[in-house]
Specification:
This protein is mostly beta strands. It contains 3 helices and 30 strands. The strands form 4 sheets. It has a 24-stranded antiparallel beta barrel. A two-stranded antiparallel sheet has the order 6-7. A two-stranded antiparallel sheet has the order 8-9.
Length: about 500
């Protein structure tokens, strides 16, 4: 698990101040709504806030965020304001490194029917993410927004996108890395059943260390990537592919920094009346970069314990596949089964998994699911094995609903050590606007300071635009993954308050 990081500066935040600041946001949100109604044009946005009071460490955190957009005619102005205040710079559960208070994103955009131009922060994807993908995953504290200019133009079946921008991020407490790119993407539709695209990008990266100057040979590199992608639809069959080649410096610490890299992806999907099949193939070599996020060809699970052992793609040396089939049976039952595998170029195995799931829906009163996964992660001919089972059920009783989930996972490590993890959760909806959630987790692992965690959360919906929650107890934390990005969440003991409002 990643260790807590440090901010450039920290401010003492008591638990009382956290509660007062959250209450202030609650009271301020109706004012924002009234301003929205009074303003010309359209103003929209959201306020999100989380307050943590860690009783075990005696520390607290306020994490507040305001996203907004104001639109008038062809113009849009928007931004994100973020307040991340810590009681101590040594306790940083979100592992956020920028200044704790200030504007995180800001942009201005001009739009017409065929043309748009955006200055400031933007997110964009070229192809399937092999050439460029800048995006934000708030739950995982992943943000690769580019700051610069994004232009898009369409003329009939042709579309053209141009980008020029950069971003910077802190890799460890004293190191920073900046990324700058400029390039173009063009694609067109042919006969409404084929899409062809091509992308070209120039990239510059540079590392710096606070207080210590680094020579260019150790701190900077640049390269160029050129890619082509295609997608075709033939009845219920969809075919897609992309190939990207990288030329130039790649790794300034490698003796073979000039060796080219590449990324290849091929996918096929069939969607019939009772059968659906997905097949994916990947081949990545010397390809890693902070501004790409290519397909993982690995199953993304909805269950917590399965998700904690998700395979992370080795973009510098990995090839593999994923197969998945879904059969729809009478009486609202579906069966899903599949497998995935990843190897290095020298054929050494990195990962394999077999998985299945059965979903059953019995009218609006009862639904149930059961899943199973068997996976192995390899490291130098040794492997860690996980066998995971999960089941959940939704039961409706008049206007009340109960959701029950139970997960069990057995782990065998290369040393021969074996342990079991158990997780159970119950969600009770006594009213349409109220939810009570309880979660308990237990482990037989010997090298942990705690073997049981219990957390209870009460959530209330106020009208259509507000939601508040208050919870307390202990949470194990662990790996959280989505779309090939993972975050190690720290263990937590104490109280957590949340607030969400849309306007």
């Amino acid at each position: 698990m990643a260790a807590p990081g440090r901010l450039k500066r920290g401010r003492r935040v008591s638990a009382c101040r956290v509660i007062l600041l959250l209450a202030g946001l609650v009271l301020a949100s109706p004012c924002l709504v009234r301003l929205t109604l009074a303003a010309e044009g359209d103003i929209r946005g959201a306020v999100r806030a989380v307050g943590l009071a860690n009783s075990e460490l005696g520390e607290s955190v306020l994490d507040a965020r305001l996203d907004f957009e104001a639109e008038a005619g062809h113009f849009i102005i928007g931004g994100t304001w973020r307040a991340y205040e810590l009681s101590s710079e040594l306790y940083n559960p979100g592992q956020v490194y920028p200044d704790p208070l200030g504007i995180r994103h800001r942009y201005m955009e001009f739009n017409t029917e065929d043309f748009s131009l955006r200055a400031g922060h933007f997110f964009t994807t070229f192809g399937r993410g092999l050439v460029l993908r800048s995006f934000e995953e708030m739950a995982l504290e992943h943000d690769t927004a580019l700051d610069g200019i994004l232009g898009e133009y369409s003329a009939g079946p042709f579309e053209l996108t141009g980008v020029a921008g950069g971003m910077s991020g802190r890799t460890v407490d004293t190191r920073n890395q900046s990324y700058n790119v400029y390039g173009m993407r063009a694609f067109t539709h042919v006969w409404d059943m084929v899409r062809l695209g091509t992308s070209a990008l120039k990239r510059f990266d540079r590392k710096s260390k606070e207080g210590v100057p680094l020579p260019d040979s150790l701190s900077s590199f640049d390269d160029a990537v050129l890619g082509a992608d295609a997608e075709a639809w033939v009845g219920p069959l969809t075919l897609s592919s992309e190939y990207v080649r990288r030329e130039g410096d790649y790794n300034y610490l490698s003796e073979q920094s000039g060796e080219p890299g590449y990324g290849t992806y091929v996918g096929a999907a069939y969607a019939g009346s009772w059968l659906s099949v997905l097949a994916e193939y990947k081949n990545y070599y010397r390809f890693e970069n902070a501004l790409i996020n290519p397909p993982t060809c690995v199953k993304e699970h909805v269950y917590v314990l399965m998700n904690r052992v998700t395979h992370l793609v080795h973009l510098n040396d990995e090839r593999g596949y994923m197969l998945e089939g879904v059969i729809s049976l009478p009486e609202d039952m579906t069966i899903t089964a599949g497998a995935s595998e990843a190897r290095m170029r020298n054929h050494d195995l990195l990962h394999w998994e077999m998985f299945s799931q059965i979903d059953y829906i019995r009218s609006d009163l009862l639904s149930a699911s059961m899943g199973l996964s068997w996976s192995r992660e390899y490291d130098r001919d040794k492997y860690t094995q996980h066998i995971t089972g999960a089941m959940d059920s939704d039961i409706s009783m008049a206007d009340q609903v109960v959701e029950v989930t139970f997960e069990i996972q057995g782990t065998e490590e290369p040393s021969g050590d074996k342990f079991t993890d158990l997780l159970a959760s119950i969600s009770y909806y006594p009213r349409y606007d109220m939810t009570v959630v309880g979660m308990a987790e237990f482990t037989t692992r010997a090298d942990v300071s705690r073997d049981t965690w219990v957390f209870v959360d009460l959530r209330l919906s106020i009208g259509e635009n507000y939601e508040v929650s208050l919870g307390g107890g202990t949470e194990r934390g662990g790996k959280k993954c989505a779309g090939g990005i993972c975050f190690d969440e720290l263990e937590f003991t104490g109280l957590r308050a949340r607030f969400l409002a849309y306007f």
